[in-house]
Amino acid sequence: MKKKLLVLALLGILTLSILSACNSNDDSASGEKVEKKKDEIYIPIISKGFQHQFWQAVKQGTEKAAKEFNVKVTFEGPETEEQVDKQIEMLQAALDKNPSAIGFAALDSQAAIPLLQQANEKNIPVVAFDSGVESDIPVATAATDNIAASALAADKMAELIGGKGKIAMIVHDQTSKTGVDRRDGFKKEIEKKYPDIKIVDIQYGAGDHLKSTDLAKAIMQANPDLKGFFGANEGSAIGIVNAIKEMKKEGEITVVGFDSGKQQIDAIEDGSMSGAITQNPVSIGYETVKAAVQAIKGEKVEKQLDTGFYWYDKSNIDSDEIKAAIYE
């Protein structure tokens, strides 16, 4: 009988030890999960694409800020700037992860609003970058003043062609705020200040240099006396340069661009492009993450974060100011 009682006592002690160990492990795991969820700040960044060097430079800015503020960021975008549906899917997937905040550069300034409303209902701050949305939901927008920047491009175009003649525009789209603002900023400046300059055509090439090349060639064929072209982003501008080369019209048509990837830098250096507006893409990425962190912490965030722009051409491309803003 004593042996039975001893065995039962030992079994009881062993059972209690196992249960205690299990409870201890559960508490530890639970504590670890809570600690991770509480401490880790995760900010997915949804861009317009990956195909241009501009977006790679924006990505560098987000990574720089992530390191400085000790947060986790991811950076993604659709293959082309025509894939609005793909971008919306990426935004939905980001929301499903219940992030701390979201950075978003809208391909379509209206299409994403329902999902942004979901983010707002979940108290997930949204920071728009490069291109805003038609909503007050974003706590901030980190972007170039595209209207002012394109107006400067128009002034430079007028100066380069002597204030008169026919010109045309290739714009990346008419759905994003950047596309609309760059188109309108350039167009309105020409119409307001230069009565002897006529914009004969505006086409939309989705930021794709091959599509933009075909559009530019068609415009030149329809307007053999064309004097100038404005390309509203990297792909648009490079498409124009390639079209002029294919049509053997080098030296006859002035090209003014926007953005500053390697191909545009090369085109300015070899004279096939007269000059361009450069944004500050690293600053755009950095300010997006910085504003998101401020919003997460409940700090005051400026609604509009103007990240700046510059005109660059052969005369200043090697200056310290421009070198800091262009990217290869």
Describe this structure in words.
By secondary structure, the protein is an alpha/beta fold. Helices cover 50% and strands 17% of the residues. It has eleven helices and twelve strands. The longest helix has 38 residues, at 2-39.
Strands of the widest sheet, in order across it, are 2-1-3-4-5-11
Query: What is the rounded distance between the termini?
Result: 87 Å
Integer-rounded radius of gyration: 27 Å
Helix/strand-derived class?
alpha/beta
Averaging pLDDT over every residue, what do you get? Answer: 89
Low-pLDDT runs: 1-36
Strand content: 15-25%
What does the main sheet amount to? 6 strands, parallel
Which outline best applies? Answer: elongated
Helical percentage: 40-55%
Question: How many helices?
Answer: 11
List the helices and strands in order: HEHEHEHEEHEHEHEHEHEHEEH
Number of strands: 12
